[in-house]
Amino acid sequence: xxxxxxxxxxxxxxxxxxxxxxxxxxxxxxxxxxxxxxxxxxxxxxxxxxxxxxxxxxxxxxxxxxxxxxxxxxxxxxxxxxxxxxxxxxxxxxxxxxxxxxxxxxxxxxxxxxxxxxxxxxxxxxxxxxxxxxxxxxxxxxxxxxxxxxxxxxxxxxxxxxxxxxxxxxxxxxxxxxxxxxxxxxxxxxxxxxxxxxxxxxxxxxxxxxxxxxxxxxxxxxxxxxxxxxxxxxxxxxxxxxxxxxxxxxxxxxxxxxxxxxxxxxxxxxxxxxxxxxxxxxxxxxxxxxxxxxxxxxxxxxxxxxxxxxxxxxxxxxxxxxxxxxxxxxxxxxxxxxxxxxxxxxxxxxxxxxxxxxxxxxxxxxxxxxxxxxxxxxxxxxxxxxxxxxxxxxxxxxxxxxxxxxxxxxxxxxxxxxxxxxxxxxxxxxxxxxxxxxxxxxxxxxxxxx
Length: 450
Fold this sequence. Notes:
Residues 16-117 form the Endonuclease/exonuclease/phosphatase domain. The protein is built from 13 helices and 13 strands. The chain has helices at 2-12, 45-60, 92-95, 141-154, 165-186, 202-220, 228-257, 263-273, 298-309, 337-345, 360-365, 367-383, 421-440, and strands spanning 22-26, 63-65, 74-75, 82-83, 86-91, 98-103, 117-121, 133-134, 189-190, 286-287, 294-295, 394-400, 413-419. The mean pLDDT is 88.
């Protein structure tokens, strides 16, 4: 199969582009070229005959062994003997690109008899930079409030009515800049690891370090099977495995017990989807709507998803200019500071922010500072008939729809819009006012649900 696949890749590769090929895996073949000499029992004719097709394939495709000979990659569960079923082969073009290729015995995961192999290649590919984020969970909110109060005072932001659109935009920009400046000064930064787990704890980190240290010692002393470090390593590894299982179970049960009317749907979705390795977060090549093929670039994928999520606008209704509308049943009431306070109290913590980077937590912890200057802005949106463009901006996150068969179709995904919280607070206040008017006047039918 490897020979057929490599030949197919060679045929499809342009003539002016060098093909770099790697064969990495558990070949389950033994030979003196890579196994330790002490494993002479693996060099019988039947083992050598089984390895010959692999050697022929390596010769046909000019492949070289990149993992140094004699480095064992497996410790048998029963006999505890070290052998070399795993290997790394590459084309000659890759030889100069190899920075290191070695067995990392200390990184051996629990419940496996194979050792990880670490391969470093210098291919001059620019690495993706991990975006630094603000860790609002570790924020000292008393210090944050004092810093924000200083910023608002320094900018002399008034709490008087807003009389013009120009004044509206300036005051909105001053408030946003003051909050963002305080966030930069007082909120600690964090660079989340792509390997991070929600259930991971400091205790597990200490246990992992101890197991890795004993693993290195056990691997170094593999020629002395009676050394007590092997027993010590096995016992520590088993305790580490049990601690992982217990921690994951405790984290899951704690989350279930704290479920709310909103998170219960997320829990149901997790149970329905079953276990996953996290790979579903990646979007594969998407099929073109006209069926002419697929696209693989991020720009092309974004265009297809945008067209699927946001169809063209419908033409405006053809209403005669002399049409007489019925009188309104009620007039919109001005948003009060009490409404704003009540809306902020209902905001959910630790939610992703919108384009301005200001999450709900800032408003929750600093409501007494912000409500007096937000109130005039919110009331001015009705008096000036003006809704700023920044409150309409959103970051769109693409999520999979569970249970679909083909995730190359754009219809298998759904968007979530992350909007600026300042505009969402105003919308929530207006919604509450509308709900009150509709319910007290009996406008909604009694059979309406949801």
